[in-house]
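Aim 2, interim progress: modelling of the zinc ion-bound target.
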Amino acid sequence: MKAIVVKPGEKGATLKDVELKETVGENEVKLRTLRVGICGTDRGIVTGKLSFARPPEGADYLVLGHEGLARAEEVGQNVDLKEGDLVVPVVRRGCGKCLNCKIGRQDFCETGEFIEAGIRGMQGFMREEFVDDAKYLVKVPRDLGELAVLAEPLSNVMKAYNELVFVQKRSVWNCDDSTFGCRKATIIGSGPIGQFFAMVFKDNGFKVTVVNRRDPNQIEDKISRVVGYSFVNTSKGLDDVPESDVIVDTSGYPSAFIPLLRKMKRNGVLLLFGTVGGEKAEITSDLITFFVEYNISVIGSVNASKLDFEQGMTFLSVWKSRYNGVLQDMITKVVKPEETQDAILEKEKGSIKTVIEWSK
Ligand code: BGC
Ligand code: ZN
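Predicted structure of the complex, ligand included:
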C-alpha cells in the first residue's frame, strides 16, 4: 500500500509502497484512511527539528501521520463498532508499566516509554489502511463527518484547558455569578491550535484575545468575528492587549510570550503549548520575582486522553452548527497523497490546516 514515510537522519518525506502485514484480532478493527491532517509536529519531523522522532523497533522507516480519520472496514468480534463507522485513532500508546498508562492516561506517562503513532516508535496513519485496537478508537458522531479530522489537534487543546481549570482550583477563580465571564484569556498564535484555544475559552465564558505579529488575514478575520474574539497585531504595540488571567503560547517563541507577561494578572496562568521555536531567551531574576510575587502557574501540556478526544468531538459538533462554516474554513487546503511532500515541508502563507485526502 502507499504510505508517506520518513527515514531517520534524512530530511523530507516520500510517498512509497510499503508492506505492513496486519491481521484483524477480535478486539481490533481494519480501517480505511479517509483524511490525515498535517501539523507543526510533522514539519518538525521532516525538517529534523524534532529529535525524538523514530521508527518502530526493527523498522528502518517511519510512516508519518497522527491526525487521522478512518472508516471501519472489518470489525473484530468483540468490538462495539459497525462496518462503515467513522473513527479517530488516539495518538499515544502507554508504556504498560506506570499507573497513569494503565488507566488510559498515557498522556501523563511516567516512564517516558510510551510510543506515538507517526511520531515515535509506531507507524502512523498516512497510509491507505491500518489495523488498530478498538480501545484506541474514538467514534465520530454522525453529524460531524470529515470535519472529525480536526479532533486530534483539538484533543490536545481540551487536555490543556482541563489542566488549567484543575490547577486554578488552587483558589476561588469563578466570578461572582459562578461563571468565568470576568476572566480574560490571551492566545498567542492564530494557527489551528490558537483558533481552537480561542473557541474553547470563548465557549467557557472567557473574554478572548488572539495575538499575532501581523494583521489577521481574511479567513482569520472571519473566524474572529463569527466566534467573537478580538485579534491584536502586537507588532504595533501591546496597548490593545487586555490585562489577562491566562496567557497561552502556541508559538514556541519566548520572544512572543515573555513581553506579554506584562499583561498578566495576579494568580494567572502561563500555558505553554508551542515548541521548536528555536530561540534562546534569558530568564532574569526580575522574571522569577514576578512569577513568585504574582502566584503565576506555568503549565506545559502535551498530548491528550481518550476522554479529551470525546469531549473535543462534542465541541466540534456544537461549533459545526454554532459557528457557521468556520470549521470548514479552517481546512484551507486538501491535498492528494502525491502532493504531500511539499505541503509538509513548508506551511503555505495564509493557510490554517492542510489535510491529505486518502479516500472518500
Ligand atoms: C500531537 C500529540 C503528541 C505531540 C508530541 C502533537 O502534534 O498532537 O499527540 O503527543 O505532538 O510532541
Ligand atoms: Zn498534530
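The chain has two domains: 2-153+322-357, 171-294. The longest helix spans residues 151-167.
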